[in-house]
Write a structure and sequence with these properties.
globular, 19 strands, 404 residues, single chain, 5-stranded parallel β-sheet, 13 helices, alpha/beta, Rossmann fold, 8-stranded mixed β-sheet
């Protein structure tokens, strides 16, 4: 639990995206962080302090002088491990950059020597204004961490750059910041990860697919990035991803094959966590198949075995990891795949077991290595399972370097 016991001062400034800070607060508390909310007066026009008080570790503060403490900003500033501002409006950025302390939040920012992470959110025209960009550049030069806004729907029916980063992405950035104290044992290593289940179309409406949510593959990508790797994630699912991970989105097995084929040769580690379809329809109907036309005959053909192809084309020193999702004889099937595919590691799990595998937030796996090493990972959060998989990759790379 990377955030357990960490003190995060959560600042909320006055933008419509303030409501998303509630989700950030909840996620941080769920991860074990001690969260102290500070709302500006403008923020209370969009969301109530009582909401944060109910969810956070202690009551939300708004005023600099109305509380029981004579100088709450210095108390919060000294005790914080991180000050996180969600959202950071143009006004907040300007105040902090210029050193103005007109309220409790800005006073706390100036009084603290803790790291500061700002999550800007505003209309496109404001975000792109030279003054705002100058303030961002100045704050970054001073060491402030910036979680850049995305592109999407804005207030008033507008759309464009300036949308607050997804709460899950913000929390992942916080995790990654604190994880930087963890081993950087993949520093500079290029890692390719696949995730999610492919969907093979039958017609424009229907497809053949599986229940993979992509959670495990995404967790592996985040873990590898937190440990210093340069990560590219090829995924079929639209899940939040931290800015440290480069994402390539695909849908079908053929699309995933094309992306992996283009990227694998340059990767030092390839982790194939995706549930790629073994078969696809030979023909795809150009229009929706009507029920009135009777039960259609769907002829199938095999898809490319991407894992076997990557392993066959491997270059010296490259580490290849496969996954084996089974419902019976798990270890037997996984051992057979480990040998048949010619990979370094196989991560096996019984997806029929309770709380294991597809769609769950938890997983239970056995990691088998080609050299006979085995790691049993009991039921745990998928990020913890991801850490075990990355540990096995690091061990494997050290063995390769040592020539054993």
């Amino acid at each position: 639990m990377i955030l357990r016991g960490r003190h995060v001062v959560l600042g909320v400034s006055g933008g419509v995206a303030a409501y998303k800070a509630v989700e950030v607060c909840r996620r941080l508390v769920d991860d074990g962080a001690l969260v102290s909310p500070i709302l500006t007066h403008a923020a209370t026009k969009f969301i109530g302090a009582a909401t944060f008080s109910a969810l956070a570790s202690e009551p939300a503060r708004v005023d600099l002088f109305d509380g029981p403490e004579p100088s709450p900003h210095t108390h919060l500033a000294k005790s914080a491990d991180l000050i996180l501002v969600v959202p950071a409006t143009a006004n907040l950025l300007a105040s902090y950059a210029s050193g103005a302390a007109g309220g409790l939040l800005t006073a706390t920012l100036l009084a603290s020597r803790a790291p500061v992470m700002l999550c800007p959110a505003m209309h496109t025209e404001m975000w792109e204004h030279p003054a705002v960009q100058d303030n961002i550049a100045l704050l970054e030069r001073r060491g402030t961490l910036i979680v850049p806004p995305g592109v999407g729907a804005l207030a008033g029916g507008d759309s464009g750059p300036g949308r607050l980063a997804d709460p899950a992405v913000i929390v992942e950035e916080v995790r990654s910041f604190f994880a930087s104290g963890a081993p950087r044992d993949l520093e500079g290593v290029s890692v390719l990860v696949t995730a999610g289940g492919t969907r093979e179309p039958i017609d424009p409406v229907r497809y053949l697919g599986n229940r993979s949510s992509g959670k495990q593959g995404h967790a592996i990508a985040e873990e590898a990035a937190a440990r210093g790797a340069d990560v590219t994630l090829v995924t079929t699912v639209d899940r939040p991803v931290s800015s440290q991970v480069e994402v390539r989105r695909v849908d079908t097995a053929a699309q995933m094959h094309a992306e992996v084929a283009a990227l694998a040769s340059d990767a030092q580690v390839v982790i194939m966590a995706a549930a790629v379809a073994d078969f696809r329809p030979v023909e795809v109907a150009a229009s929706k198949i009507k029920k009135t036309e009777g039960v259609p005959t769907v002829r199938l053909e095999p898809t490319v075995d991407i894992l076997a192809e990557v392993a066959h084309a491997r270059r010296p020193g490259q580490v290849i990891v496969g996954f084996s999702a089974e419902t019976d004889d798990v270890l037997s099937h996984a051992s057979g795949k480990l040998e048949a595919k010619g990979v370094d590691l196989i991560v096996a799990n019984d997806v029929s077991a309770p709380s294991v595998g597809f769609a769950h937030d938890t997983n239970e796996v056995v990691i088998l290595a080609a050299d006979g090493h085995r790691v049993d990972v009991p039921l745990a959060d998928k990020r913890q399972v991801a850490a075990a998989v990355v540990d096995a990759v690091v061990r494997c790379r050290r063995s390769v370097v040592a020539g054993t």
